[in-house]
Design a protein that fits this description.
heterodimer, A: 114 residues, mainly beta, 7-stranded mixed β-sheet, 0% helix, globular, B: 114 residues, 12 strands
Chain lengths: 114, 114
């Protein structure tokens, strides 16, 4: 069974530029999560989707971050414009559903903002 | 609100020695508890989880953890460390009322020396 796929693996941009990350969850997983992991910290949930609807986006900085999950499968996370403090690893995870607690993580995208 | 505290950001043990990584949680409702491992440049992999039932939980790679409600703890142990155990370990908590939203600790980096 294929795991959670993410691309790109690494991205370097200048502040005020925009960037997008892509995630393909495990087949059949209805719930998809985006986490931000700043160096030296644990992952922090940014947004959670159930199929193509948003369950929780309370910690998503909506003035610059956006995410979508069209057709309830793949998802894209966008940052526009980027700030230096957005430098982090962005992890995507998926699970069978909101009541199934085992989450499977992708390898992450390491973003460096200069 | 839920929270996790991991005591010790760095732990160093000799190969063959006991591994003990500490995790304390705070939750107003019965918690579900997890330990994840993260190898360099990789995503998080589930080691073990406690939901209900037996309080001593066995996971992959010889790790186990015990849920102690009276101490609000979920410490991770392994009787004999191996070089391949060197990684970052994260404790996380969720509950039935949070739609599987995981709250992570700040992580403990385990170093294994010869």
């Amino acid at each position: 069974e294929a795991g959670v796929a993410q691309s790109p693996r690494y991205k370097i941009i200048e502040k005020r530029q925009s960037v997008a990350f892509w995630c393909n969850p495990i087949s059949g997983h209805a719930t998809l999560y985006w986490y931000q992991q700043i160096l030296g910290q644990g992952p922090k949930l940014l947004i959670q989707f159930q199929n193509n609807g948003v369950v929780d986006d309370s910690q998503l900085p909506k003035d610059r971050f956006s995410a979508e999950r069209l057709k309830g499968v793949d998802s894209t996370l966008k940052i526009q414009p980027a700030k230096l403090e957005d430098s982090a690893v962005y992890l995507c995870a998926s699970s069978l559903g909101v009541k199934v607690y085992e989450q499977y993580f992708g390898p992450g995208t390491r973003l460096t903002v200069t | 609100a839920q929270s996790v505290t991991q005591l010790g950001s760095h732990v160093s043990v000799s190969e063959g020695a006991l591994v003990l990584l500490r995790c304390n949680y705070s939750s107003s409702v019965p918690p579900y508890l997890f330990w994840y491992v993260q190898y360099p440049n990789q995503g998080l992999q589930l080691l073990l989880k406690y939901t209900t039932g037996a309080t001593l939980v066995k996971g992959i790679n010889g790790f186990e953890a015990e849920f102690k409600k009276s101490e609000t703890s979920f410490h991770l142990t392994k009787p004999s460390a191996h070089m391949s155990d060197a990684a970052e370990y994260f404790c996380a908590v969720t509950s039935t009322g949070t739609a599987s939203k995981l709250t992570f600790g700040t992580g403990t980096r385990l170093q294994v020396t010869l």
